[in-house]
Task: inverse folding
């Protein structure tokens, strides 16, 4: 089956020296596509979504505008994450010789192509939490948690949190 | 900065011009893998490229120097504006003779990677920037180019198609059935070859030089232990990228995002995260069935 998402990820890996793996996750931490070796894709997805959110908050906190990418650089290589609109996050894993300059030049085309592919897919009611839905859900969860705490405080016990 | 049209002057002539003019600065090379050649008085003192492991990779991957020792030497060199080579030897981490030999090896490997790849263009830049891990005195550029040519010819002497650093490497069934260890670093390379890693990737992953790795690969290919192939054409994006509406993959996702099941509780929120929400997100790090499409 023709998989445009995986094809774009692999094309980026072919174009940039040193990329050892890629993964695409939804903003709420679910793996969409993965092309890595050994890394647990579910862990990657959850970590990437969390990290992107934190990185964007950091950018906002210091007034530096829109986040372009976030990066870790370790002894054994580099991990970069990119936001794809408000829907997804792309993870790029590279070894010590990752050609970061070329990655900067090539990544935008990949992000645009993945964004276009995701936008062309029909929206699913359960599939994607938009910002509006997320905000609504947070309010509901907070209200529910408060209610549970109140019941516990009153000695009524409670169900699962 | 001057950009030279490759159609007017081969790279070798450009490098010779740097040598003859006793150039001090950087020769930036665009291409694959591309990189930079650093010269002082026309002699090569360093070469950096994504195409071959640096001395840092070689030393750390082999365990010759610990990460903490390396970091300490790097920090001290940066703070005191000292050369990294001096810090490594003064701290007794590497002997002076050994370090010079390793540096020459990695510089030769980097030049080999750079000139045996594709060179699209280059430009010179005058620079008095202080770099770390320099060869002093520098190496004769003509010798390095000649050595790179010798290595290319040595690899071409083996049977089969020419091996490129970009070629992907996969094991044969014979490799899976092999008996006692092969030695000479071959077992490490075979353990890392997965059909996606290129020869260059295997050099980095094994912490060995590019040429050494390619030589082992081409020998093992001749022995029937590995097969090599150029990067897959299938990895190029298709001509019609839009997904069919309603198209669903076998794993239950659309070409877009996965369908969240309503019985999942504790949805972590990507924005407005507090320390508590981060903990909630990390609760998702429990094993679940694979969703992504496995690479072929």
Result:
């Amino acid at each position: 089956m023709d998989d445009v998402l995986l094809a774009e990820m692999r094309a980026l890996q072919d174009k940039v020296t040193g990329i050892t793996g890629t993964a695409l996750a939804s903003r709420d931490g679910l793996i969409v596509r993965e092309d890595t070796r050994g890394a647990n894709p579910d862990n990657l997805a959850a970590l990437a979504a969390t990290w992107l959110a934190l990185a964007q908050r950091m950018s906002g906190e210091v007034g530096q505008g829109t986040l372009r990418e976030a990066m870790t650089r370790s002894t054994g290589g580099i991990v970069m994450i990119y936001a794809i609109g408000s829907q997804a996050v792309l993870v790029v894993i590279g070894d010590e010789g990752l050609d970061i300059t070329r990655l900067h030049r090539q990544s935008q085309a990949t992000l645009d192509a993945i964004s276009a592919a995701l936008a062309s897919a029909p929206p699913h009611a359960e599939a994607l939490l938009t910002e509006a839905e997320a905000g609504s859900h947070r309010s509901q969860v907070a209200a529910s948690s408060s209610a549970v705490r109140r019941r516990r405080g009153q000695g009524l016990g409670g169900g699962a949190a | 900065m001057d950009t030279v049209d490759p159609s007017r002057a081969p790279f070798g002539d450009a490098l010779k011009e740097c040598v003859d003019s006793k150039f001090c600065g950087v020769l930036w090379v665009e291409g694959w893998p591309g990189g930079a050649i650093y010269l002082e008085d026309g002699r090569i003192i360093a070469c950096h490229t994504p195409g071959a492991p640096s001395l840092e990779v070689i030393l750390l991957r082999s365990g010759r120097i610990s990460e903490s020792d390396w970091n300490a030497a790097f920090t001290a060199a940066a703070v005191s504006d000292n050369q990294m080579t001096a810090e490594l030897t003064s701290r007794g981490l590497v002997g002076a003779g050994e370090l010079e030999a390793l540096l020459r090896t990695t510089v030769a490997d980097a030049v080999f990677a750079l000139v045996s790849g594709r060179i699209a263009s280059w430009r010179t830049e005058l620079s008095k920037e202080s770099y770390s891990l320099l060869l002093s005195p520098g190496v004769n550029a003509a010798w390095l180019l000649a050595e790179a040519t010798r290595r290319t010819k040595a690899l071409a002497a083996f049977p089969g198609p020419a091996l490129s650093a970009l070629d992907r490497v996969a094991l044969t069934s014979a490799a899976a059935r092999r008996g006692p260890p092969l030695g000479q670093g071959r077992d490490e390379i075979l353990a890392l070859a997965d059909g996606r890693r290129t020869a260059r990737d295997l050099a980095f992953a094994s912490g060995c030089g590019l040429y050494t790795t390619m030589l082992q690969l081409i020998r093992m290919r001749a022995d029937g232990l590995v097969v090599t192939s150029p990067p897959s054409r299938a990895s190029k994006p298709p001509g019609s990228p839009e997904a069919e509406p309603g198209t669903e993959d076998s794993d239950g996702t659309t070409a877009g995002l996965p369908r969240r099941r309503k019985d999942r509780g504790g949805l972590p929120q990507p924005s407005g995260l507090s320390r508590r929400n981060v903990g909630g997100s990390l609760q998702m790090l429990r094993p679940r069935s694979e969703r992504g499409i496995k690479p072929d």
